[in-house]
Write a structure and sequence with these properties.
The chain has 302 residues and is α+β, with helices and mostly antiparallel strands. 42% of the residues lie in helices and 18% in strands. The chain contains 8 helices and 11 strands. Bound molecules: calcium ion (2 copies). The site of one calcium ion has 5 residues, from loops.
């Protein structure tokens, strides 16, 4: 063999070796990426199981609470935030929040028709929060069954928008739906969020958990100072029944008893779980309407 072909053969052999080395490196890399992905997926599914455990824990806690007490107030075990607790490879944290501490926006319409008493409560809440009064009529038209604009907006308005849509003419399924209602700009929704909820049926406000703002909205002529006094009074001992609360209203102030309760059926649970590099969050609405195990009305789990 002369020198030239031999040299070429050596170069060729070196190239083959180099390519093989490159291929092996690429394979190793893709294997390690794959292994990492698999590890993350495993951690994620562990974290999801953690969320399920959190939900079961909440249901058990609420179930036990119903057997132990006729009232629901912030001093009860369900109301304490769960500090991060260790689980295998990570931690679980969360809390349960009474949704009847808030004004249920779906109360504004009952059986397809605006309920003037509830609409008035919403107007007072809007005024208390410094938000425009016409929002109440906007919501009323969005929720009521008819297509007749009564101070708010119906299909004609929603069809004329950049993204045409129709008025829902039914209860809100979720607070996020407010974004579609006339006037409920992001800043408005942000201001309202801590005080309102959207529950699947009409509900009373639990005066043992509601904020002073929500209580003030319920009671015509109450005012902020008296509302704060009613909240302060329950901190010493919760209201045991409606008349316990009604009896503390200032002279001359009246409230329809059916607007309030001292216990609750709707609770929202929020959990976050971290397992090594994976973190997941979940939210669910629980209904506890009898001595049976609380039901899940909806859940947003990954
Ligand atoms: Ca209770
Ligand atoms: Ca309507």
């Amino acid at each position: 063999m002369n020198a030239r072909p031999r040299g070429a053969a050596i170069v060729m052999a070196m190239a083959v070796v180099a390519m093989a080395a490159l291929a092996a490196t690429a394979l190793l890399l893709s294997q390690s990426t794959w292994a990492r992905r698999l590890e993350l997926a495993t951690q994620r599914s562990q974290a999801q199981r953690g969320l399920e455990a959190g939900l079961d824990w909440s249901r058990a806690l609420l179930h036990d609470d119903l057997r132990a007490s006729q009232t629901d107030h912030p001093g009860e075990p369900w109301a304490m935030s769960l500090p991060p607790i260790p689980i295998e490879g990570g931690e679980l944290a969360g809390r349960i929040e009474d949704q009847q501490a808030r004004f249920n926006l779906n109360n504004v319409v009952r059986d397809g028709v605006v309920d003037p008493v509830q609409e008035e409560c919403l107007r007072r809440l809007l005024a208390r929060l410094g938000l425009p009064a016409p929002l109440a009529a906007s919501l009323g038209d969005w929720l009521d069954a008819d297509g007749l604009a009564q101070g708010g907006a119906e299909d004609a308005y929603y069809l004329a928008q950049a993204t045409p849509t129709l008025a829902a003419n039914r209860p809100l399924t979720d607070l996020a739906e407010l974004a579609r209602v006339r006037g409920f700009e992001p800043a408005v929704r942000e201001r309202l969020r801590p005080f309102v909820t959207a529950l699947p049926r009409p509900t009373a406000v639990n005066v043992n958990t509601a904020s002073a703002e929500v209580i003030e909205a319920l009671v015509p002529g109450l005012g902020p100072e008296a509302a704060r006094a009613l909240v302060a009074a329950r901190e010493r001992s919760p209201y045991l029944d409606r008349s316990g609360f009604l009896g503390r209203l200032p002279e001359g102030v009246r409230l329809a008893p059916e607007l309030i309760s001292v216990n609750s059926e709707y609770f929202q649970v929020d959990f976050s779980v971290q397992v090594h590099g994976a973190r997941v969050r979940g939210t669910a609405l629980l209904v506890r309407d009898s001595a049976s195990w609380p039901r899940v009305a909806w859940r947003k789990f990954p």
